[in-house]
Amino acid sequence: MSAAFAIMALTVPAMAQNVAPPGATACSGCHDPSTPGAVFPPLHGYPSGEIVAAMQDFRTGQRPATVMDRIAKGFTDEETQAIASWLSQQP
Amino acid sequence: MLQVLTRRMLLKTAAVGAAAAAFSRRTAAQASPKVVVVGGGFGGATCARELKQKGLAVTLVEANAVYTACPFSNAVLAGLRPIEAQQLKLDAVEKGGIDIIQKKATGVDPQSRRIALEDGSSLDYDRLVLSPGVDIRFNALRGYDEAAATVMPHAWKAGEQTTLLRRQLEAMDDGGTFVMAAPANPFRCPPGPYERASLVAHYLKTHKPRSKLLILDAKDSFSKQRLFQAAWQDLYPGMIEWVSLSSGGKVIEVDAKAKTLVTDFGRHKGDVVNVIPPQRAGEIAQVAGVADRTGWCPIDPVTFESRLQPNIHVIGDASIAGGMPKSAFSANAQGKVCAAAVASLLRGEAPAEPKLINTCYSLVAPDYGISVAGVYTPRNGLLADVEGAGGTSPVNAPPSFRAQEAIYAEAWFQTITREVYG
């Protein structure tokens, strides 16, 4: 029974259900999804490629940051990709 | 290890099955499963809104009409910010279709899944989320009772206590001493006492420069310690004295009449005395039987469901969230994850393994911010730090970096309050 759940969770992509992938909902704690001109860039509807590139650069230190370097290091490429795709599809 | 995991998975499966059964039993009688959230702070209000977005019927029980936010309340204390900037209402939450009951929750019966309210009425739930914050453990520190708190405020629950301590600070003569007792871990907002010391020092340096600040601590180390101590040396040289546990800093008794804190090694009289006392999960968590002997609430790191009572979830400061500190950011992140898990469980699905983030800013001065961040995931039954991620701001950074973090601190407060209450 529990194995069945595990398989379901693995085979049904989170995005297909529009369920936020792990970590994605925490972003809006700082990044106001929709207010233009906010200090932190709004991420809802943001191009996913740009989010992925920014996160990679934060992780390697190529892009200067105050806190995003420390946060980006907590996510794998796959996780970052899933979060970026989800954010880009949010209204 | 394997056995533990198997048992956990079995329990989880059993919980899912029970939820599915409860769901189908209730769907016959009512349109949708009922979720009750107790506590309208950052965790509870976030969770209620997320649950509603997922199409669930949500009732939010909160006794107070106005919620006074703790983050940035140290700036109120230092005269940098009006208390009104901290006061938040649930009007927008209510407009979003959440049933708000402005009463105190007084009892929980996990068996019949019903909570009791102060007026004798009751509410049924399929799933209950408790986000009660902290309660002060009066008398845990000898002599520190509610009466003593009117003389030596804790100001650790924002509101009247904050403005009381502010008035005392304003009334203090130049050359006076501000004495603070800092508690042992765990407690709400680990960097909070040291941010407070910093901003009080900023006020004193500006208005009463001959004054001193003494911190008597029940710990040997604290959050963002290197950053705070370096900043104190730069900005407030000779003004702040920190006495660690091993140097005899632990306060064991307070004498409110004499405005004096007592340690094993001596008595410290202050002109203004701030006691940050031991704390525990808010009262309703104790009543519901979800708090353990430590006074805090053990939870499953995937669902935030209590390890002690089924169908009750605990989020925010009240929960034992492993590496996650007791902060508003944590409570907000947990509220969203908990809502997703509750929705999954009510659909009879297994909740996904979450990942959570915390970011905590502290102000050392109005234009000097520092931060600690972390990324967390369930490991061995707890929320553990993802290795290689997180940490504090760099020890060596130019003033522009500190100024930027001070701006981010304020921006974070604006964003989170808009998301939760706007």
UniProtKB/TrEMBL annotation, chain A:
Gene3D superfamilies: Cytochrome c-like domain. Residues 1-91 form the Cytochrome c domain. One of its GO terms (molecular function) is metal ion binding. This is Cytochrome C. Keywords: Heme, Iron, Metal-binding, Signal. Residues 1-16 form the signal peptide. The keyword DNA-binding does not apply. InterPro entries: Cyt_c-like_dom, Cyt_c-like_dom_sf.
